[in-house]
Amino acid sequence: MQSVSKSFTAAAVGIAINNGSIPSLDAKIMDYFDEYESSTPDPRRNAMTIRDVLTMTTGIQWDEFSMPYTDSTSNCVQMEESLDWIQYVIDQPMAFEPGEKYEYNSGATMLLSYLINKTTGQDLADYVKTNLFESLGITDYYWKHTPTGLTDAEGGLYLRSRDLAKFGYLYLHNGKWGNNQVLPENWVENTQAKPVDTIWPKFKYGFQWWLMPYGKNHTALLASGLGGQRMIVLPELDIVAVFTGWNIYEKPALDSWMAMNKMIDAVIDE
């Protein structure tokens, strides 16, 4: 699923907050990393909240979108080649105040993996299995781990298309699966309540979901991963659409905006 994994990680954070393991979205995330020490100390890092991490407004100096994932200068590539992904992320210097500016950062999602482990006592993969997958009847999946044994929250989930669609169904129905409230009642709303601007005018960003405004005050939710992994949720039209592929590097992947508009046009034409 590549970066579609990030949306599952955010859901786990929402569940952990609802269960009381994490106090709030505005808790300072670095309070949970006392076992780590940064080689680039900066008081701005200590001000970073869980909300900042979910919306990728951490303030950390990070670049993974201006070059292909084959480029060794990519922060994401360097993180994934390191022996301790968390240490790599924490060692990156701060460039902005947390909450000030959006910067896509797969390392930020890894901080959430560690946070779940630290606050719940469970590895993220186990926590998601118990609190999400079992409710949805998802049994056929695999989640990669880092060299230190941490769940690869930013891109390591392998999942069938039909099971990905089940996850989208939760966001279509305010976190409910049948009569079971799997996600906190307000989590889907919170995910898109305060979207941040990105470097792409058509796309905003919520809690590890891309947000695509359309029509009159409507918003589509997009989970997107390298190579053409896409899930588009259109609540007003009662649609969940899943696409998978492996168009990487020089091969163009599915254009999410085009796909969304073609679906909307098809429904309207009906």
SS field, number of helical segments: 10
What name is given to the CATH topology? Beta-lactamase
Contiguous low-pLDDT stretches (5 residues minimum) are none
Domain count = 1
| Architecture (CATH level 2) name | 3-Layer(aba) Sandwich
Give a description of the structure.
With 270 residues, this protein is α+β, with helices and mostly antiparallel strands. It has one domain (2-269): DD-peptidase/beta-lactamase superfamily (Beta-lactamase, 3-Layer(aba) Sandwich), CATH 3.40.710. Helix content is 36%, strand content 14%. It has helices spanning 5-18, 43-46, 50-54, 75-81, 85-91, 106-120, 124-136, 161-172, 187-193, 256-269, and strands at 141-143, 157-159, 176-177, 180-181, 196-197, 204-205, 210-214, 218-225, 229-234, 239-243. The strands form 3 sheets. A 6-stranded antiparallel beta sheet has the order 5-6-7-8-9-10, with helices on both faces. Strands 1-2 form a two-stranded antiparallel ribbon. Strands 3-4 form a two-stranded antiparallel ribbon. Helix 1 (5-18) runs parallel beside helix 6 (106-120). The mean pLDDT is 95.
